[in-house]
Amino acid sequence: MTLIRRAAAIGLTLVCTSLAHAADNLKAITEDGRRVILAPDGRWTFDSNQASARPSGGDSPFRPTVKAFSVNFDTAKWGLVPAEPGDGANKRSFRHRTLPLYAMVISDEIPTTTEVVRNAIISNATSAGADPKVLSEEIKPLRGKDVGALRMLVSRGGLDFVFATRYYGDPRGNIQLMCWTGQAIFFKYQADCQGFVDGLVIE
Predict the structure, then answer these.
(1) What distance in Å separates the CA atoms of residue 59 and residue 129, rounded to the nearest whole number?
(2) Cys-Cys crosslink for 94: which of 19, 103, 170, 178, Cβ 3.0 to 4.6 Å?
(3) 11 CB contacts (<8 Å, ≥6 apart)?
(4) What Rg value do the Cα atoms of the chain yield, rounded?
(5) Coil, helix or strand for 67?
(6) Are 169 and 116 a contacting pair, CB within 8 Å?
(7) Taking the model in full, what pTM does it have?
(8) pLDDT score recorded for residue 36
(9) Are residues 100 and 42 part of one domain?
(10) What is the pLDDT of residues 123-151, one digit of tens each?
(11) Cα–Cα distance between 78 and 61 in angstroms, integer?
(12) Do residues 36 and 91 both lie within one domain?
């Protein structure tokens, strides 16, 4: 075998090995929207291209129990909180990465109407020992669906919180998105809070 042929064979072997190795690596997105590369040996690393590939805002779809609904949230701002042992599959919590903002998504397959979901939000706040006061309320169209938007002041144990919500119900199920923080600072951070609840997507 000539020197050129040997070099070509070695080069071809290296290319094939490299391609096989690349084919074995899997790219994945974690539950909180971060991109990772999974190696064949089980090790993983964060995808170094994720920052440049990430669009500004709403880059991670979170799918709750009812697959007709999803939530787009900005993973640069929001992180998915690990589920607590008592949490059901229908409820997930989120936390802002830098601001004192908290959020939750609740969804299940019980068919209902948007009005019933609204009443359940108020009822649940009251039964938890809070004293909810509606600050604003409206129905906003979303892809041809009438989606509720509710902002309320909730007082409990001497603390006042403002909640921003989006909610919806139909024969497929229902969903609530909530974001909240202390009343004294809510209006300072309301853009990020509203941005989270506005991430609701209905198919």
Answers:
(1) 36
(2) 103
(3) none
(4) 23
(5) coil
(6) yes
(7) 0.70
(8) 67
(9) no
(10) 988 888 888 999 999 999 998 999 999 99
(11) 12
(12) no
**Distance between CA atoms of 178 and 41, rounded to whole angstroms?**
40
pLDDT tens digits, one per residue of 66-102: 989 999 999 999 999 988 887 778 899 999 999 999 9
> What end-to-end distance do the CA atoms of the chain give, in Å?
63
The reported pLDDT for the residue numbered 43 is: 73
Domain membership flag for residue 12: no
- The share of the chain scoring above pLDDT 70, in percent, equals 75
> Domain range holding 188?
55-202
51-55, 98-102, 136-140, 194-198: segment of lowest average pLDDT: 51-55
The pair phi, psi for residue 83, each rounded to 5°, is: -65, 140
Query: For 64, which DSSP code?
Result: -
With contact defined as beta carbons under 8 Å apart, do 108 and 177 qualify?
no
